[in-house]
Specification:
The structure is a homodimer of 440-residue chains. Chain A folds into three domains: 3-44 and 51-112 and 240-307, FAD/NAD(P)-binding domain, CATH 3.50.50; 117-236, FAD/NAD(P)-binding domain (3-Layer(bba) Sandwich); 327-437, 2-Layer Sandwich (Enolase-like, domain 1). The first copy, chain A, contains eleven helices and 25 strands. Chain A has helices at residues 11-23, 45-50, 64-71, 136-144, 156-167, 188-199, 293-307, 337-342, 391-403, 408-412, 428-437, and strands spanning 3-7, 28-32, 74-76, 80-85, 90-95, 98-103, 106-109, 113-115, 127-128, 148-152, 171-175, 203-205, 210-214, 219-222, 226-228, 231-234, 238-240, 270-272, 279-280, 287-288, 321-325, 328-334, 347-355, 366-374, 380-387. A five-stranded parallel β-sheet of chain A has the order 3-2-1-7-18. A five-stranded parallel β-sheet of chain A has the order 9-16-10-11-12, with helices on one face. The longest helix of chain A is centred in the last third of the chain and has 15 residues, at 293-307.
Amino acid sequence: METLVAVGGGAAGMSASSRARRLKPDMEIVVFESTKMVSHAPCGIPYFVEGLFNDENLFMTYTPQFFEEKRKIHVKTNTKVTEIDFDSRIVYGESREGKIKAEYDYLVISTGAIPRKIPVEDGNDRIFYAHHPANAVELRERLWSLNTIAIVGGGILGIEMAEALTHIGKKVILIHRSKYLLNKTIDTELGNIITQRVSKDAEVRLNESVETIKEGGRLIVTDKGKYQVDGTIIAIGVAPNVELVKDKIKLGETGAIKVDDHMRTNYREVYSAGDNTESVNIITKKPAWVPFAPVANKMGYVAGSNIGGHEMRFPGVVNTQITKYKEFYIGRVGLQEDEARLHGFKPISATISGKTRARYYPDAKDIHVKIIADENTKRILGAQIVGGEEVLGRIDMMAAAIMKGFTIEDTFFIEMGYLPAISRVWDPVIVAIRQLMKDE
Amino acid sequence: METLVAVGGGAAGMSASSRARRLKPDMEIVVFESTKMVSHAPCGIPYFVEGLFNDENLFMTYTPQFFEEKRKIHVKTNTKVTEIDFDSRIVYGESREGKIKAEYDYLVISTGAIPRKIPVEDGNDRIFYAHHPANAVELRERLWSLNTIAIVGGGILGIEMAEALTHIGKKVILIHRSKYLLNKTIDTELGNIITQRVSKDAEVRLNESVETIKEGGRLIVTDKGKYQVDGTIIAIGVAPNVELVKDKIKLGETGAIKVDDHMRTNYREVYSAGDNTESVNIITKKPAWVPFAPVANKMGYVAGSNIGGHEMRFPGVVNTQITKYKEFYIGRVGLQEDEARLHGFKPISATISGKTRARYYPDAKDIHVKIIADENTKRILGAQIVGGEEVLGRIDMMAAAIMKGFTIEDTFFIEMGYLPAISRVWDPVIVAIRQLMKDE
């Protein structure tokens, strides 16, 4: 009987296992997961900290019991894989019950990502990472006991934690290296809007680099000053978790595991999927690394399909990102303008501000749209939206457009729906597109 | 000097004129509009009746003064065109000041649509059409003075008027010919959800045809019974308004004016755009007629571009529709399942019910998604969504997908964003798509 082993029970590992199970009902499938949770994703941690829900089991899409009973997938939680012998096809590990060993015919590496760290001095008992839901209960208890909290890093996690903590009345100091928040998600025009908004609730320190953190997390030393706080959240991004395999498996230039479009590594029977795995950017055709749950799930689905004997190719990524801060939703897809230039495109862009509803319909929200296209080919390269409602769907639409190489004019002709209660007859996206068409 | 004349100052006429003006700054441009309003659309009438706004000028995107002053477009309101001499290129009409006559080099016919009617006996003083914003003030005054109101027709306008009238406490009897409401927008599975919802507020009579209306609108006689009401709204759809030109200009099989992809009629210098104009369905490649404001605007834009010397082609329509009823948004794009069969496709479909937010995020709404694809080519043929939030954007995304011939698998790989506050890691659309992929 064939055996599939997955190392890591997050989104990608469980998605791969579930898909393989559907296609091969008799396969032996074992998932090793180092924490107590499976099919988990960190996206919910800020909302847990905010107090929007209290049951940590809700972090899991399905429980280990569900996978065991409904899908006959053996889930070994609290089991850390310590070594993989790729030549003999054996996984070694440790659980509470002792050492484990498992042979495989197919392997899925789905070890996810780990938070990037900052040099610290004098311990780390007040340094926090909002990374794994298995630690969310303790994280929340600790954070709730503090008054002034520093967040290092003004990316997606940083502003989501700022939203959560200011909402529950904490004093937040947000220290960010760049000149505006979310600079790896959106460009200056829209980033400034969010930076101003966050600054109403939190002390935002821009253009400032943390040099070290002392007193276990209570003293932050930057290139511009010192901050005395009760605790510090590090939110400077994540890195592919490849420690276990990095000397044995081929990595890509992003540092994540290199795979072909079947999600196969340099070992034919070894697949990799999720936040530890490199992909290809559909626009630039260059290696890309997009550590978000929907991509992880689909990578897992593709790996599981191929293991299950149904050939499937992963087409690459367009780097869709979406977050929110209080009344604003913030989304992007494709390349930012500088990124586009860096990749040899000649970007042109239009940024417009509008409203989300017909001029006569009450409670319209502000919406800001930036569209980036290539001057030579007229292809859409990127879209960024900050607004009060219906941001996600517009970003999703632009994701579809960018994936298939829509031009400016193609996008103009997308037959977007019009309902006065929720949109404008000339949709803000189309208004931006029209600006790009103006001089034609 | 060249002269452009537009007959009809709605969305299409003003869009064509504005685009031509931008491209030809010196052109003489005159718009004849039979009512007092321009760049109007009827979409807002139900909300005006509901009392969500009170200023009728808000129906206009821009006022006649704006066009006159900012765009140097001569807008002649309250001016009815009575005849067009296509050989001599002269438009004749009547205004309050007397007869008018205008020669043209280019003509845009943008006469819009008119409501379909029902045979009546004994006058029509209590029969209402919620069609033109120029009559909205009077319409609202009349409706507000009545208690029990019948609506004939359970399409988009019918349910929007039902929403408005039940919201302000009127007793509504909604009489519909088909077995569920919105049957020309969505299929049975989703249509039943809306039908049940509307039935909570209004008396919904299905499978019932109106034979005549008597007593000026106070007695409705159907094939199943009689209803005594205070007034009747007719909402059984619209027809292309081609009375003025039908004997002189080539019409298409839908009854609307036939144009090429430049929006040109059988006269080289005569264009047609908007609800009076036929288009092509991108999926079936057959003639189609989609009388909605965004399409009208884009048709006008294309006509104006071509008149202005910038060649542009209208790619056709995918029939995007969106409406709402109380807490539900209702959208569709592409073909319904029966429509697909009728056009020679072999439709397969998946209908799923889900939630709009991560399982741990509060206040998730219900959402129901139906996706239709062709079994042979795997192309997506249609999408229908009924749900509590973010319906429009998903429909817009599917509009983009359908326009460019996305397959089931292409759609699976659209990198939809995931934010727990407003979506699911496996988006409901992707869940439906996965069902369609299941047996592959």
